[in-house]
Write a structure and sequence with these properties.
With 278 residues, the protein is an alpha+beta fold. Helices cover 26% and strands 26% of the residues. One calcium ion binds next to loops.
Length: 278
C-alpha cells in the first residue's frame, strides 16, 4: 500500500515539476510543458489545463528542462471504443463550430451566448484568450471526436488518447468538449479542455507495463459520466485533493437530479444534492 501511495504522490507531483520555455519569433515567452512536438508544431501545456499549439514558423526556440517526449503515436481510444458510431452530435458540433467562429472574430457577445459559464475575461481582455483557445481547436474535425456520450440535456465528446512516451514521463492527453442544454432550451458549451494523465518513469523505476496499467486505471471512467473512477472515489492522486467530492463510480447521476456527476463537477454544482444543479 505504501508503494502505491508513493507512486500516486509522484504522479501527482509530476504535473508541477516541469518547466519548459518556448520563445516565439515575436519575442514572447511562455513557460509550461512541451507535451508533443514534430516538424510542424509544438503542443505546449501552458498550465491550468490549457494546451496551445505553436507552429514552427512562429517559434524562435524551445528550451526543455527535461527531454521532450521522444515519440508520440496515436492509439485507439482506451475507454469507449464504439460510442460515436451511433451517437448523433451534429447539433452540438454545430454549436462548437459557431463558438470557434466567435473566438476567431473576437465576437464576445456571440461567444457568451454560446457558453453556459460567463467567459473568463472582460471584453477588452478576451482577444488573446480567444486566440489561444482557437489555436488549440482550429484543426480539429468532428470525426476526431470518436467518443460521445449523450442524453437529452448533456453531451460529452472526446478525442482519442494520444500517448507521449518520454524518458521522464509516460502520459496520455485527450480533448473533451462538454455541451449542455441551458434553461432557455438551447445547446451551449460548458467546457472544452484537454485532459492529461501522466506517470513519472525514472523516480518510480517501474516497468512500462506497470506504468501503462496504472495510467489505464487513472483514466477509467466506468459509468462514462465525465468523472474518472478515481475522481468519483477520491482514490489515487485524488487522495491529496482536498476538494475531491465522492460520488458513485457506477452511476452517472448520483443524486438523481438528471445531471451527470462529471457535468456537475464542471458546472461546480453539488453532485450529491438533488437541489443543486445546472
Ligand atoms: Ca465516472
Ligand atoms: Ca458517477
Ligand atoms: Ca446529478
Amino acid at each position: 500500500m505504501k508503494k502505491y501511495l508513493l507512486v500516486c504522490f509522484l504522479v501527482f507531483m509530476a504535473r508541477t515539476v516541469f518547466a519548459d520555455t518556448i520563445t516565439l519569433v515575436s519575442g514572447k515567452q511562455f513557460e509550461g510543458k512541451v507535451i508533443e512536438q514534430n516538424e510542424q508544431f509544438v503542443k505546449f501545456d501552458a498550465g491550468v489545463g490549457l494546451v496551445v499549439t505553436f507552429y514552427k514558423d512562429e517559434i524562435a526556440s524551445v528550451k526543455t528542462s527535461v527531454d521532450a517526449p521522444a515519440q508520440v503515436k496515436r492509439e485507439p481510444s482506451l475507454q469507449n471504443k464504439d460510442a460515436l458510431a451511433t451517437a448523433d452530435i451534429d447539433t452540438e458540433w454545430g454549436v462548437f463550430e459557431q463558438f470557434l467562429g466567435a473566438l476567431k472574430g473576437h465576437d464576445v457577445q456571440k461567444a457568451t451566448a454560446l457558453s453556459y459559464n460567463p467567459l473568463p475575461c472582460s471584453p477588452e481582455e478576451c482577444g488573446p484568450i480567444f486566440d489561444m483557445i482557437y489555436s488549440v481547436y482550429r484543426d480539429y474535425k468532428k470525426t476526431d471526436f470518436i467518443d460521445a456520450v449523450k442524453d437529452s440535456k448533456q453531451c460529452i465528446i472526446s478525442t482519442r488518447e494520444v500517448l507521449s512516451d518520454g524518458d521522464e514521463e509516460r502520459s496520455y492527453t485527450k480533448n473533451s468538449i462538454v455541451f449542455i442544454v441551458n434553461p432557455q432550451g438551447a445547446w451551449v458549451l460548458l467546457t472544452a479542455e484537454p485532459r492529461v494523465w501522466g506517470h513519472t518513469k525514472k523516480a518510480t523505476n517501474l516497468p512500462t507495463e506497470e506504468i501503462e496499467k496504472a495510467l489505464r486505471i487513472m483514466m477509467q471512467d466506468s459509468d462514462a459520466d465525465g468523472k474518472t473512477d478515481n475522481e468519483e472515489t477520491c482514490q489515487g492522486a485524488q487522495e491529496y485533493n482536498s476538494s475531491c467530492v465522492k460520488t458513485d463510480a457506477s452511476l452517472k447521476d448520483t443524486d438523481g437530479d438528471g445531471w451527470w456527476d462529471g457535468v456537475e463537477k464542471l458546472a461546480k454544482t453539488d453532485p450529491n444534492d438533488l437541489q443543486s444543479h445546472l
